[in-house]
Structures are given as C-alpha cells and as structure tokens.
Amino acid sequence: MATPAPLSLPPFDWDIFCCVVDNFGDIGVTWRLASQLQREGHGQVRLWVDDLVSFARICPGLDPALDGQWIEGIYVQRWHDTVPPNIVPARVVIEAFACELPAPFVQAMAEQSPPPCWINLEYLSAEAWVEDCHGLASPQRVGKLSLNKYFFFPGFTPRTGGLLCEQGLIAAREQWQQDEAGLAAYWAGLGLAPKGKDELRISLFTYESPALKSLVASWCQGATPITLLLPLGRSLRDVLTGAGLANATPTAQAGDLLHSGHLTIKLLPMTDQAGYDRLLWSCDLNLVRGEDSFVRAQWAARPFLWHIYPQDDLAHIAKLDDFLDHYLADLPPQAGQWLRAFNQALNHGQDVRELWAQWPQFGTIWQQHARSWSQKLLADGDLVTRLVKFLESRI
Ligand code: TRH
Asked: Is 58 in the pocket of ligand 1 (CB under 6 A)?
C-alpha cells in the first residue's frame, strides 16, 4: 500500500528520473533498479515518474492520485514540469534513457558541494560500439558552473554495465522450478491443472505481428497439447485471429479460458513484476519484447523468442542480430541457424509454421543452452554491482 509523503523527507542517496515514452519498459527498468538499490542496502531512493497510471499497472500498490508516496521503501515522486522548491538532489542522479532533467534540478545539482554524480542510464544493446561508449564522461555547462554526465550502458560483455539482476533471484528461480507441488499450486491458482507429460506451457507478451497468427495456427493444428498464458495486451487480436477466435477479441477478459484444436488459451491480468517473473519461470517457452521482459526471460533459463521494440529505420533488426551473435555463439550451427531464422521471422512478421515444426528437433538443446546462457551472463557481475563500483571511483 502507498503511504502519502510526510512533510519532511530524508536526504536521498539516489534520484532516478523516468519518463514513460510508451508501454511499460521505461518504468519497468527504473522500478527494478530502484527496488534493487533499496533492498540491497545502497541507500534511500527517490524515483521521479511522469506517468503514474502506467506505473500502477505493474505496481498495484501505487496510488496514481498522489504527488509523493512511499512504496516498498522507495519514495515515488510525480514528475511535473516544475520541481518542489528548495529541492536537494541526491548523491547520485540517474536520468534513464536520456530523459531530460528539469532545468531547476540541474541548477541545484551544479550548486551542490560536492555535486552529485550524474549518470545517463542508456537502453540495452548488444552492439559492439557500446563497449567504447560505456563510462564516458560528457561535460555539461550549467550557467558558469560545469558538471560531468557519465554514460552507463547495460550490456552483455565485461566491458559494459551488465544486466539488472537482484541478489538471490537465481536461487529463488531454481527453487521454484524444482518445486513440483509449488508449481501445481501455481497452476491451480490460475485455474489450470498441473502440466501434462507431453504438454507445453508458453507465455506470450509481444507487440502486434502477423507472425503470431501463423504461430498460433500451428499450435492449434499440431499434435502437442499447448497451453498459452497470455497477459492481456497488444498481441491479443493476432493471437485470437490465429486461433480462429477473432470474434472473441472485443469481449475477452482476464480469466477467460479459450480452446481451439490442441491449443488452450488462458487470458491473464497484468501482475506486478515478481508475478511476471514467476510466469516466465513456469513456462517451457516465453515470447517476450522490449528490454525488461527480454532480460527477465534470460534469467528464467528457459527458451525465449525476442520481439524487439520496432524502430522506424529498422535499426532494431541490426540490434537483434547483434544480440543473436552473442546468444547463439555456443550452439551447434544448425540449431543456431534455426533460432536466428525464427527470431528474424517473428520480427519481420513472416509465416513461422515451418520454423515451429522444428521445435521437436531443437527444443531440448535450446533448453540446455538457456540454462548455461543465464549463468554465463552473470559471471562478471550484475548491473547494480558494476554501477556501485563505477561510482566508487567518482564520488
Ligand atoms: O512494455 P515494453 O514494450 O516497453 C518498452 C517501452 O516501449 C520503451 O519505450 C522501449 O524503449 C522499450 O520497451 C525497449 O517492454 P518491456 O521492456 O519488456 O517492459 C514490460 C514491463 O512490464 C517489464 O518490466 C515487465 C512488466 N510486466 C509486469 O510487471 N507484469 C506483467 O504482467 C507483464 C506482462 C509485464
């Protein structure tokens, strides 16, 4: 539950600014970062957000009507055009994804002694240039004063900022995936029987794509029983159309259970992020998108397909390829080629029936690969560990 702000606030160690461009990724990443910093004892966190209604979709305890509130030990401040008078910036100020900080806040930063460390947390990308730009300083003039802003790039290699992954997450996932009784209780909570021996459970949280129609159609027609866990959202129409259930789209609601051939579709409400993680951990295959669900699918140690956030100039396709170069490097060539083709077809909106038909051939090796990939990614530390180390030399 949200607690309204008291009159006086403590000094903050972290100010994190989030501008919600669209969807849930901007707030999804910054909320995970704020939560991890707070829970792992790195100090008091204030999170500035311009769209509390979107935030509340993934944080049900939040009250979008409040200007300031404490939630799970973090102070959430509605970000208006103006900032409260006499604002005292935290020791570290993070602007997420190059959102522009309010000018009076930057002025207060420049006047503070010593000034805060200013970080621009960038979008995740596997492109090679990220290694050269990670950690670079960009001098900023503020009137007669100056401040350094540092670029911090998440990434997949030791020379980047790594990926957000809170301590204890991997152990919690292991426990969850080995607990048969717990899993049966989880499925029962969703109104489903325990998973059948030959059944596949698949979660899907993507954007619109014609590829979904062909994928869902082949799930309906295939011999394997499949249950699709579908949080309500942008992919609903394509999924139901592929299942021959387009007529159900206008009235579809969370909780509905739909059937078409060998496919069962369970419509889910959006939950908090921990609930979404549990869904990813429980499924045999996850279709994810954007940045944060993409990273969390990797921590699930299960096969996943990535529907990358589309960009006008098709820049996202090169980004997808650069990620796949890393992800597929340790797979036998045939399996790697298949997975590359599958991800590309999904992102180009192509028919994927023939690709899905090869799941029986490659599913097991993909599952093994998903486990080793998740371990490999953490070998050089998670993003918060790397960020704190980076700051130690600058504060
Ligand atoms: O929602 P996304 O598409 O977000 C974005 C934004 O559009 C952003 O502008 C863009 O730059 C970025 O992608 C790349 O995808 P993403 O990043 O996966 O964010 C979804 C968040 O929603 C993630 O934190 C998980 C969360 N979530 C829940 O908490 N509960 C749920 O039930 C579901 C389905 C998702």
From this structure: yes
